[in-house]
Amino acid sequence: MIYIYSAILAAYLVLFFLSLGESGNPFQRMAARIYRKQHERQRKMTGGRRNWKRAFHARQLGEKLKTLQPGIAVEKQVREHYLSLYTLLLMVVFVGDLFCLAAWFSAHSAARLIDGGYLPRNACGEGDVEVELKAEIPGVQEEIFDYLLAERKLTEDELEKSYAEAAALLPDAVLNGNACLEDVQKDLKLVSDLQGYPFQIGWESSAYSLVNTDGTVHNEELAGGEVVILTAKFRYEDWFRELQIPVQVNPAVYTPEEALRMRMEELLREREEGSRSAEVMELPDQIGTQPVIWSEIIEDGSGYFLILVMLAAGVLYWGKAKELEQKLEARKRQLLLDYPEIVNKLALYMGAGMTVRNAFLKMGEDYKKQKEEREKYVYEEILMTCYELQSGRSETDAYAHFGKRCQVQSYMKLSALLSQNIRKGSNDLLRILRQEADNAFAERKNQAKKLGEEAGTKLLIPMMMMLCVVMVIIMIPAYFSFTLT
After folding, report:
1. Per the confidence metrics, is the pTM higher than 0.85?
2. Contact present, 77 and 62 (Cβ < 8 Å)
């Protein structure tokens, strides 16, 4: 995995130097470089379904962005959209890759196996350490061991606990994977001490040929079950006591692989016992005449973190597109809510003797004075219409463009009404506008009622959660009081 993480960093480094001519921070420069190269490649491509689909997607994106900000050029908005998206993705992948590298180095820095065959111990008081080892005999067998490397031997003065508790725990502590002491088929774990207790424990066996003092069970040639008395000698300074533990050893059949593994475990125990006072333990380099290659199994979870980083980048990319759709939906809602106000103003200004053109110019001038307080989409479109009228465009086209840019049915109807009045002339325009204002106000009330119902529906989930909390608060004391009685 380190090669993948290094390759990602190398790619960032190359991209950083290639983008030195761009402006902005490093990630913005790299994003600008990617966008520029992508844009140049797309312009060189001609024909093909893939190019057509990409162009269609870009045109759709441009229309959506133009709808949100009609006063800014489409090309500039599309460029800024992709630059912000690429900048965010580059930052996420870069930070995630750094975390992956940190996780990889953290996992590999904890490795204990050195020089292919030595395991350094912890100093006294630092505790035992678990090491996962892999023993490999080329072409023959490979075994994995979860090995507990003990700390350097403690003095007897450092141990303290009570005999009664230790004696009760000892039978379960020596099982070492056997079902019970009445059915022993594998090696026992005759511990020399119990964690948290001050006793040094020595062992004696009534039959060393069956169970040795290190817990090795020799049942390879056993025909039937035999009972062996193990004697545990607890010592604490001058205090001494014996505990007899009867075990029944039953015969076991081992496959060649199991027998080889047992031999490996026996050699590991021998090396462990022979190197308790040494700084390191040397692992056996061969089993009989066959060489053994040792390597440590390192739990490296950085690869999973890289997957999470890539998933996060994908979610951010999807969220960016979703955010644009949400902005368009919010714009549509705002336009619908502002529609009665626009129609009322038109009817008011025209009733005061203004023309439709002057009414639009008046609304645009009023909005520019209070634009800093709050921007509204419909007034931005009205400003665009004012600019078109002032630049010489005909009123018919300007009003038609106004309805088309709003992309809402109510405004399209209003623009068609205004354009038709300019083309054909009508004395009933003021009456129609006042009637439309009444209809729009009624529609606004219906929409407000609908929004209130939606808000009430959204509150159902927190209300249900609060109900569950209340039920738990009531039921738990009732349950415990019933249990106690």
Report:
1. no
2. yes
